[in-house]
């Protein structure tokens, strides 16, 4: 890890963003990399691809909303200042930090550059924040309150979160090996993922290239423990089931599951039990991978980035693998797409996210005909 | 068909007391919860006033078990939630679990605990810190505590949108019940005074008393000079109407509409901002499907800031036209200060109580009229008046505007 000194920890690895340089200077920003910069970068790319970046006449900015998920917002740059100025009376705060720290500064900075004036929200739902933001946007779009919503999430790797996971013994020392018998934990990651969601009629009318359709979502809460998942995945069953219900799909319609699959012994076992409980015999035939094996656990951004992955899997007909998978676990006996991607055209994909405190959110995306 | 949504329970932890009765009586009596702050060392700073929550005994509501691991915000939210559930006479076993959700607005969550934890990390050997030190440090951990403690299994959601957070949470919870995705939602806000939050406001120049003046928290007053920070937790039980009727629940008011509009960035003009506030009001009324002329009360965002209060007053005047001068306006931040992410829920509860009791609390600390504010401000004494429809207005410094419309059932 390069973000901070890990010499006093037992784990020294993570999935950091390397060599990131934003080609523009954002106003009133901390010089080093910040979550604003990651989110801005991803937002610009998403808008560019959607065709909305340069065609501002094609939308009504009052009907352009924004929803972002984050676990820690700008905690990482704040920690850098605290390390330098811990003894100062202002805790290292200066005017810039004061302006950027509140999590809603993320939506504020994006609005400043991309000029949308519809409803705005920041979701603080730990590791399911991204899917919560997507679900929120989906409701507004379905009810015709907006035409377009920029959704997604972003997080960096604060030392506090690293320590928290580390001391819960949740971090993998070398590799994140979801569903492997010898899995030892998660690998903390960072970054941002953004999607542009539009009402179907609006997208068609403006001639947009449609990547996928969102079919539904489900939310639930374990109501069980502050940091441990429910051992039988009770909340996970409810939220996957509610998502299927909203999408009007049956378990056999799902062609791929992007698992929450953190790589911790508890999560992967509980998630497998939950999938088998809900999908019954189909569970064994639905490819289900954890892309966290490759990019790590992006916390508040995880389910946003994984929704991007789901949409790309639909678009390209390729299902991403679970890497570092070597030893099957009798308790985790599904088709986890071990180590190699698979070319397979699927119609519907399901994206799970389960956060600390049992905050669960599942989204479903479908191929557009 | 959209479900109707009513308020069936209220829970409060505030600088003006810990139950809806105390809070309401103190507002009606014109008391102030603003005091020289003792929870922070403010010796280097000029602004020292705040709406501190004092003498809360969370063990009354939450028991003693595990209490020592809970931080201030979690104690606030846990206690307020327990009061609200009791007030709504809801069962607190698992019988309703899948039907109950929690949606809370909190702008910074447990941020100060996160900072404290970071100091522990850099001053000690981090790998030797007990996991219990960080048991309650996530920004949303107070909401997690509530879901675990009260066996809430429908959904848990935390919304951070600056000063509009808890109005947004109530608006979102209302939408979720409307869509029949839950029968009952614990909705509201929590925010806590901390040195970090103090510095965020202080360095942005938002606090009252920066110029050395003694008078503070003067909504709509000509001498207003910024806001006084406040803390607390304000929780309501929102419930699907038929569900509430079937179980014979007390019904305080009905939530009718929610509107939200945003203008981000720093470069917007006053006029543009006013247009967005108006848009939020318009959307909320449109959803409520009532005419703006039928609004009998506005619970104003007004917190004593020069620019924001002026924009709010002008917007109300222009949006309501000639009637803008007649609608009674309350501004409870005169009594309790600005509780940031929790403020919208506090205003919401005050408006619900006005509908429920037929009384409008008066604005205190108002001595000098601002010639540009031509509103029917309720001053000096509370007003007795039957209220059919009320509007709750919230505004964030970074451009978010949210508005709720509620009615007598």
UniProtKB/TrEMBL annotation, chain A:
Q: Which residues form the Ketosynthase family 3 (KS3) domain?
A: 1-367
Gene Ontology MF: a single term: 3-oxoacyl-[acyl-carrier-protein] synthase activity
Q: Name one Pfam family in it.
A: Ketoacyl-synt_C
Q: Which UniProt keywords apply?
A: Transferase
- Does the keyword field hold Transferase? yes
| GO BP term, pick one | fatty acid biosynthetic process
Q: Report one GO cellular component.
A: cytosol
SUPFAM superfamilies under this entry? Answer: Thiolase-like
InterPro entries associated with the record? Beta-ketoacyl_synthase (IPR000794), Ketoacyl_synth_C (IPR014031), Ketoacyl_synth_N (IPR014030), PKS_Beta-ketoAc_synthase_dom (IPR020841), Thiolase-like (IPR016039)
Entry similarity comment: Belongs to the thiolase-like superfamily. Beta-ketoacyl-ACP synthases family.
Name of the protein in its database record: 3-oxoacyl-[acyl-carrier-protein] synthase, KASII
Q: What organism is the protein native to?
A: Candidatus Jettenia ecosi
TrEMBL record, chain B:
Domain of life, per UniProt, equals Bacteria
The UniProt entry, under PANTHER family, shows:
3-OXOACYL-[ACYL-CARRIER-PROTEIN] SYNTHASE, MITOCHONDRIAL (PTHR11712:SF336), POLYKETIDE SYNTHASE-RELATED (PTHR11712)
Name of the protein in question = 3-oxoacyl-[acyl-carrier-protein] synthase, KASII
Keywords in UniProt for this one? Transferase
User: Might you name a Gene Ontology BP term for this protein?
Assistant: fatty acid biosynthetic process
Picking any one GO molecular function of the record gives:
3-oxoacyl-[acyl-carrier-protein] synthase activity
Q: Show the InterPro entries listed in the entry.
A: Beta-ketoacyl_synthase, Ketoacyl_synth_C, Ketoacyl_synth_N, PKS_Beta-ketoAc_synthase_dom, Thiolase-like
Organism placement in taxonomy: Bacteria, Pseudomonadati, Planctomycetota, Candidatus Brocadiia, Candidatus Brocadiales
- Family membership: Belongs to the thiolase-like superfamily. Beta-ketoacyl-ACP synthases family.
PROSITE patterns, alphabetized = KS3_2
Indicate the segments forming the Ketosynthase family 3 (KS3) domain, all copies.
2-408
């Amino acid at each position: 890890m390069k973000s901070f000194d890990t010499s006093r920890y037992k784990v020294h690895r993570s999935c950091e963003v390397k060599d990131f340089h934003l080609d523009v200077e954002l106003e009133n920003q901390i010089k080093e990399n910040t979550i604003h910069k990651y989110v801005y970068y991803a937002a610009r790319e998403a808008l560019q691809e959607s065709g909305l970046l340069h065609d501002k006449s094609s939308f009504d900015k009052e009907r352009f909303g924004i929803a972002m998920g984050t676990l820690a917002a700008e905690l990482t740059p704040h920690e850098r200042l605290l390390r330098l100025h811990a003894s100062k009376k202002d805790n290292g705060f200066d005017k810039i930090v004061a302006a950027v720290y509140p999590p809603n500064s993320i939506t504020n900075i994006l609005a400043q550059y991309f000029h949308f004036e519809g409803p705005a929200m920041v979701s603080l739902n730990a590791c399911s924040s991204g899917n919560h933001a997507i679900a929120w946007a989906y409701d507004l779009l379905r009810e015709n309150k907006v035409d377009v919503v920029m959704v997604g999430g972003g997080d960096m790797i604060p030392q506090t979160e690293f320590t928290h996971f580390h001391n819960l013994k949740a971090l993998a020392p070398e590799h994140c090996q979801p569903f492997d018998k010898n899995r030892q934990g998660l690998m903390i990651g960072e970054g941002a993922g953004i999607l542009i969601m539009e009402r179907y009629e609006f997208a068609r009318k403006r001639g947009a290239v449609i990547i996928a359709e969102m079919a539904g979502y489900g939310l639930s809460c374990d109501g069980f423990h502050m940091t441990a998942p429910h051992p039988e995945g009770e909340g996970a069953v409810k939220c996957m089931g509610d998502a299927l219900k909203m999408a009007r799909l049956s378990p056999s319609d799902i062609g791929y599951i992007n698992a929450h699959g953190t790589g911790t012994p508890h999560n992967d076992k509980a998630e497998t039990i939950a999938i088998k409980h809900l999908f019954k015999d189909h569970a064994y035939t639905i490819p289900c991978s954890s892309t966290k094996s490759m990019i790590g656990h992006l916390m508040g951004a995880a389910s946003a980035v994984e929704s991007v992955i789901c949409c790309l899997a639909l678009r390209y007909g390729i299902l991403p693998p679970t890497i570092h998978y070597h030893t099957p676990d009798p308790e985790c006996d599904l088709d986890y797409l071990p180590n190699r991607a698979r070319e397979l055209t699927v119609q519907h994909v399901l994206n799970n996210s389960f956060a600390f405190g049992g905050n669960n959110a599942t989204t479903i995306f479908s191929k557009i005909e | 068909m959209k479900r109707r949504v009513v308020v069936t329970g209220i829970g409060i932890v505030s600088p003006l007391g810990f139950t809806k009765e105390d809070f309401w009586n103190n507002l009606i009596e014109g008391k102030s919860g603003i005091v020289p702050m003792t929870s922070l060392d403010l010796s280097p700073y000029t602004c020292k006033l705040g709406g501190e929550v004092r003498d809360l005994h969370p063990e009354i509501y939450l028991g003693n078990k595990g209490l020592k691991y809970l931080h201030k915000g979690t104690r606030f939210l846990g206690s307020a939630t327990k009061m609200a559930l009791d007030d709504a006479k809801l069962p607190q076993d698992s019988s309703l679990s899948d039907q109950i959700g929690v949606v809370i607005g909190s702008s910074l969550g447990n941020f100060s605990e996160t900072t404290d934890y970071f100091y522990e990390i850099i001053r000690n050997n981090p790998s030797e810190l007990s996991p219990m030190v960080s048991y309650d440090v996530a920004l949303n951990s107070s909401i997690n505590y509530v879901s675990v403690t009260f066996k809430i299994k429908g959904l848990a959601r935390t919304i951070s949108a600056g000063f509009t957070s808890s109005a947004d949470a109530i608006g979102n919870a209302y939408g979720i019940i409307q869509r029949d995705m839950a029968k009952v939602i614990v909705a509201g806000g929590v925010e806590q005074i901390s040195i970090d939050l103090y510095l965020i406001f202080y360095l942005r120049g938002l606090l009252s008393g920066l110029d050395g003046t003694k008078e503070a928290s003067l909504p709509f007053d000509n001498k207003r000079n910024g806001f006084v920070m406040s803390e607390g937790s304000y929780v309501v039980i929102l419930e699907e109407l038929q569900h509430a009727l079937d179980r014979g629940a007390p019904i305080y008011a009905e939530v009718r509409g929610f509107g939200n509009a945003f203008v981000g960035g720093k470069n917007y003009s006053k006029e543009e901002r006013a247009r967005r506030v108006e848009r939020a009001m318009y959307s909320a009324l449109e959803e409520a499907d009532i005419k703006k002329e039928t609004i009998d009360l506005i619970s104003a965002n007004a917190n004593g800031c020069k620019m924001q209060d002026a924009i709010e007053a002008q917007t109300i005047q222009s949006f309501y036209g000639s009637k803008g001068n007649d609608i009674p306006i309350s501004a409870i931040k005169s009594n309790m200060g600005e509780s940031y992410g929790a403020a919208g829920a506090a205003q919401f509860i005050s408006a619900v109580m006005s509908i429920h009791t037929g009384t409008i609390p008066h604005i205190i600390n108002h001595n000098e009229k601002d010639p540009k504010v031509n509103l029917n401000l309720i001053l000096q004494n509370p007003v007795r008046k039957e209220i059919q429809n009320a509007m709750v207005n919230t505004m964030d410094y970074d451009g978010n505007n949210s508005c709720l419309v509620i009615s007598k059932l």
